[in-house]
Amino acid sequence: MPTLYVTEPGARVEKEYGRLLVTDKDDFVRLAVPISQVSEVVLVGYAGVTTPAMLAMLDAGIGLTLVSRSGKLRGRLQAAEQRNLALRHKQYARSSDPKFCLEISRAIVQGKLKNNRTMMRRMLRQRRSRRSEQIQELGRLSIEKINRALSESERAEEMAALRGLEGVSSRAYFSVLRSIFRADLSFEKRTRRPPRDPANALLSLCYSMLTSAMFTACQVAGLDPYDGFYHADKYGRPALALDLVEEFRSIVADSIVMTVINNRILRPCDFEFGGMEAERGVYLSKQGLKEFLTEFNRRLNASVYHPLAGREMSYQKIFEVQARQLRKVIEGSLPRYTPFIGR
User: Fold this and answer.
1) Does residue 128 surpass a pLDDT of 60?
2) Are both 3-77 and 85-331 of the same fold?
3) What is the pTM of this model?
4) Which pLDDT value is given to residue 222?
């Protein structure tokens, strides 16, 4: 159990000898797991943790992440670390170099577009027998837009141009993704803070969980997750983690959402409205959240072939490999960053 997810409102993580216990609001023990078998604890919504459990996690180097029911990252607790100041200084200097930022961003955007194209082709193949020729034509036109954007990205000389190409391609990609989702859980457009429909609720939650996993990978590699190259620095935003998430959005997050929707793992009854009247959004129910996190954890621990490493590894490990590769580029021991391209 690399990551322990606690989702029940009122549930609490406690410590008993060498174990972490998850108890409900009636103090009934729902789960007991050795601390040595946990690498991360994620509290969702109104789940809590005792001080002894927090101290035990700090001593064991276990990260604690708090997210809202909609997937918004609320905060993280981590042990004091021996920071590699020389590496951090290089990272900050590189992020102030426009040429370096442009080249890293070009690789990130191209990786995202290629994986969007791969995901789109996979979706169209899987649904060919069930969908109309109109959807297939929409997919063909969208792939053409992505191919043009990939070609133009080679010549982009400014960050704004890269972001524009990514925006055009993403809109084309989402037009196909929207048409592939089961009709009763599809969406018209991307909505956030709060999500206005079940599909957007799943996408937002999955992107947030993916960012949290990448945040940890950046820390493991010794990098500052908040100082990025493509995403603009903003107070409280983990820009570097968001940079590295881009190439995995479609092949990990969108793939998970498509699986739980089209395989009927989740149904409309697994969602509910919540929040203030002016900000009412759609969120997963308690049971729906459990089903989703089970699929999310399964996917992150599935074995995938990494072409640069030349072997299969989990996505969780691939995140670390990509972060360490970027570290080498920052330090100058590698000439360029190579994004992970899915099959």
Assistant:
1) no
2) no
3) 0.83
4) 86
What span, in angstroms and rounded, lies between the C-alpha atoms of 242 and 226?
9
Q: Confidence class of residue 277 from pLDDT cuts 50, 70 and 90?
A: very low
Class (C level, CATH) for 85-331 = mainly alpha
Q: How far apart are CA 341 and CA 343, in angstroms?
A: 7
Task: Tell me the residue type at 261.
Answer: I
Residue 25: what are its φ and ψ, rounded to 5°?
-70, -15
CA distance 13 to 20: 7
- Would the pLDDT of 278 be above 50? no
Least confidently predicted of 30-34, 71-75, 195-199? 71-75
d(CA 313, CA 320): 11
Phi-psi sector, 4: left (phi>0), alpha (psi -120 to 50), beta: beta
How far CA 220 is from CA of 45, 67, 225, 257, 320, in Å, comes to: 26, 21, 10, 27, 7
The residues spanned by each domain of the chain are 3-77, 85-331
| The CATH classification of domain 3-77, taken from the options 3.100.10.20, 3.40.50.720, 1.10.12.10, 3.20.20.150 | 3.100.10.20
Q: Exposed, middle or buried by CB within 10 Å (0-12, 13-18, 19+), for 136?
A: middle
Token digits of residue 196: 């206005």
